[in-house]
Amino acid sequence: MAYKKSTSGTKPNFKIVINSPVVLTFSAICVLALVLDKVTARNSTALLFSVYRSGASMASPFTYLRFFGHVFGHLDISHLTGNLMMLLILGPMLEERYGGKILTVVIAVTALITGVASFILFPNQALMGASGVVFAFILLASFTSFKEREIPLTFILVAILYIGQQIYQGIFVDDNVSQFTHILGGITGSVLGYNLNKK
Fold first, then answer.
1. Could you state, in order of their start, the residue ranges of all structural domains in the chain?
2. Among 33, 31, 97, which Cα is nearest to 65's?
3. For the domain 21-198, what is the CATH superfamily, name and number?
4. Which of 34, 120, 177, 181 is the most exposed place for a label (fewest CB within 10 A)?
């Protein structure tokens, strides 16, 4: 008579899985951009990872790359970790709901809109960082319970709290943070969230 060895007492095997490829890839590029920033004494950031206007901006092909690349650049480790924490919290949920391709489009559209707007409206400032994408993710996440002809109360509250805070800080707080980018990122996430969930 043959007996099967019982496996009930064995410990389950756990493995690390790549649950959110787009968000993890985005985060890895942000880390790499900061490493390059330090290694090249900010030259890589000036070339690829920040938006600004210079005398020959429109003639340089790098200007158009920076419209997208600025979301990867960060000033320092504190700036980076602040953005990455929110991206890594919200991103996997959004990537599971909408898929990697759509989330990539959300990131690219947000980067382009905030990059071009900063280039046109703030010629004397350099814009960098993923905070516009973070705000797009925050407002996009608030649409997860959206139904046609209904506006989720959570979306209204998030919009008031986050966008209202940025308007207040933009008026009354003097710092190096681009509240305009946060607001524009939030608006972009709201519009995309409404249209994606409507479909």
1. 21-198
2. 33
3. Rhomboid-like (1.20.1540.10)
4. 120
- 192 phi and psi angles, rounded to 5 deg: -65, -40
DSSP type of residue 146: -
CA distance linking residue 143 with residue 171, whole number of Å = 28
| Token duo for residue 41 | 């004494």
Tell me the pLDDT of the chain (199 aa) as tens digits. Answer: 555 555 556 677 888 888 899 999 999 999 999 999 999 999 999 999 999 987 767 888 999 999 999 999 999 999 999 999 999 999 999 999 999 999 999 999 999 999 999 998 888 888 999 999 998 998 888 877 666 666 777 777 877 877 777 777 666 656 565 678 888 888 898 888 888 877 6
Of 60, 25, 59, nearest to 46 by C-alpha is 60
From first CA to last CA, the distance across the chain in angstroms is 61
List the beta strands (DSSP E) in the chain: none
- Of 15, 141, 142, 29, nearest in space to 84 by CA: 29
